[in-house]
Design a protein that fits this description.
- With 492 residues, this protein is α/β, with parallel strands linked by helices.
- The chain has 4 domains: 145 residues, ATPase, nucleotide binding domain (Nucleotidyltransferase, domain 5); 85 residues, Dna Ligase, domain 1; 123 residues, Nucleotidyltransferase, domain 5; 87 residues, no CATH class.
- Helices cover 32% and strands 26% of the residues.
- A 6-stranded mixed sheet has the order 11-7-1-2-3-19, sandwiched between helices. It has a 5-stranded mixed sheet with strand order 14-13-12-17-18, with helices on both faces. It has a 3-stranded antiparallel sheet with strand order 8-10-9.
- Strand 2 and strand 3 form a beta hairpin.
- Helix 1 packs across helix 4, helix 7 packs across helix 8 and helix 9 crosses helix 10.
- The longest helix has 26 residues.
- It is globular and about 85 Å long.
- The two termini are 24 Å apart.
Length: 492
């Protein structure tokens, strides 16, 4: 089966992320992942389409240059805030001599979405639907895995319908139209994120997935392998940064850096760290500030407590608070705060673990793709793979999965090497992320300093000469390019 590529873009309140994944049947290889500070997004909503195009456009340009591709379309996540949930129903007649298929179930879900009466069709749009139960007229409260394969003349379903603002999706469309990138599909991210983070047993036995994001904290409650409840709160890591900025009278950027470097919950359990004092140098208009780490922890702990109390209230409202045998799974950027999981366990009574993307893919040289704040990006890739989204790029010019070296824009055998070769043109994909094994690298001694003004020292095997007045760095670059040509010609 020919490789195809999925491009996923996560539009977060504090950062945007672009992921490129190569799909070969069931094999998923992330070949590019990079984040950038977001702009024009509040509480996961795009409010300024033009500002959004700047960081996203830079990521697209960088990915195209590094991978030697042209991105034509991408899958994108929908906003998570201001989303309400309703109950929808659908019914369809079937041939009683045939068994219910997965296609029948999907058609029923589509019918539930198409027939649901919106209160305000001009301003609202359906974000998605999650099946809660099915019935055949004789059997009731069946899950999808049970209903498929049963013969019946009728199929009925109850669905949780998620409804959001149409203007939010329109702003995303405008931004991508400006970028010249088509949107292959928009996904309601809480459900796809869960498939990237939660195990099947967790969803079956009861768990709450808490996405502690920058502008929004969302909670999705699962029981019986079904999303039973969803809610979002317009507070997150950005609120903590704002608290630090207000208390210390410093800039947002400095407050964010302090939070990332020294942020922690539970000030009484910081041991020696609580005795540390952060020195904040002034810009010359006033005295330097001193911020005790313990006081910083108190600021963070109060805000985390407020956010988690709202989350626990939503869990109680779901009606499944007593069914969460697997407790809470904490993902998103806020999950990286020191002692955050322990503090939430203390105030909630649930077991808490950090939600990292599960090992459903491979990735080499993609820094950050295995962290908690990459869960949405990986969820988008998994959902797009399952939905058979077509190839999102053009001009891909790289070796197949499993090769030891990945070349970008390199010339063929016998052709002259390009004048400049960037570090982006060559990527190591071996198990140790090494371009060549040690025994494959010839030892090259640079000429002595006394030869710099002479004719140079010609090396064997066609190695480059060091010209008059040429620096060691320039000479070394030319020598390495020559070695690349020799090794490549031997392997082709």
């Amino acid at each position: 089966m020919e490789d195809r590529h999925i491009v996923a873009i996560d539009l977060g309140s504090s950062k945007v992320a672009l992921t490129v994944a190569k799909i070969n049947e069931d094999d998923i290889q992330v070949i590019y992942y990079k984040e950038a500070p977001s702009a024009g997004i509040r509480n996961s909503y795009v409010f300024n389409s033009m500002k959004v195009t700047r960081p996203v456009g830079d990521l697209i340009e960088d990915a195209e240059k590094e991978l030697n591709i042209k991105i034509t379309q991408a899958v994108v996540g929908m906003p998570k805030y201001r989303v309400r949930q309703e109950i929808g129903q659908a019914r369809m007649e079937l041939d009683p001599e045939e068994c219910i298929t997965e296609k029948n179930v999907n058609n029923l879900k589509t019918k539930a979405l198409d027939t649901y009466p919106l209160d305000d069709a001009d301003s609202e749009e359906l974000f998605g639907a999650v099946a809660q139960s099915f019935s055949t007229g004789e059997d009731f409260q069946l899950v999808e895995s049970d209903i498929i394969g049963m013969p019946s003349s009728v199929l009925e379903g109850n669905f949780k319908i998620f409804i959001g603002k149409k203007s939010a999706l329109h702003a995303v469309d405008v931004a991508f139209n400006k970028l010249g990138i088509a949107i292959a599909r928009k996904y309601f991210t809480p459900d796809v994120e869960a498939k990237a983070v939660l195990t099947q047993s967790e969803m079956e036995n009861g768990v709450a997935l808490v996405d502690f994001g920058g502008g929004v904290t969302s909670v999705s409650v699962y029981y019986g392998s079904i999303m039973r409840h969803y809610a979002s709160i317009p507070f997150g890591g950005a609120s903590i940064t704002s608290d630090i900025r207000s208390e210390c009278l410093i800039s947002d950027r400095l407050a964010e850096n302090i939070k990332l470097a020294f942020g922690a919950c539970m000030p009484d359990k910081l041991q020696n760290l609580s005795e540390k004092v952060i020195q904040i140098n002034s810009d010359g208009n006033g005295p330097n500030k001193q911020l005790p780490v313990k006081y910083l922890s108190e600021i963070i702990t109060y805000r985390v407590k407020e956010i988690m109390e709202a989350v626990l209230y939503e869990i109680e409202q779901s009606g499944f608070a007593d069914n969460l045998r697997n407790g809470l799974v904490l993902t998103g950027g806020g999950a990286n705060l020191t002692n955050c999981a322990n503090y939430i366990k203390e105030i909630s009574g649930y077991n808490v673990r950090a939600g990292y993307p599960r090992h459903l893919f491979s990735a080499i040289g993609c820094e950050g793709v295995h962290e908690t704040d990459a869960a949405v990006s990986i969820g988008l890739v998994l959902a797009a793979k399952a939905d058979q989204i077509t190839d999102c790029i053009q001009g891909e010019n790289m070796v197949k999965i499993g090769e030891s070296v990945t070349f970008g824009d390199m010339t063929g055998p016998g052709e002259e090497a390009p004048e400049e070769t960037s570090h982006r043109d060559v990527q190591a994909t071996g198990p140790d992320s090494e371009l060549f094994r040690p025994e494959e690298i010839p030892v090259v001694e640079p000429p002595a300093a006394t030869n710099h003004g002479g004719k140079g020292n010609r090396k064997k095997n066609g190695e480059a000469d060091q010209k008059d007045g040429e620096s060691k760095v320039t000479w070394f670059k030319k020598t390495i390019r020559t070695l690349f040509d020799e090794i490549r010609d031997e392997k082709v």
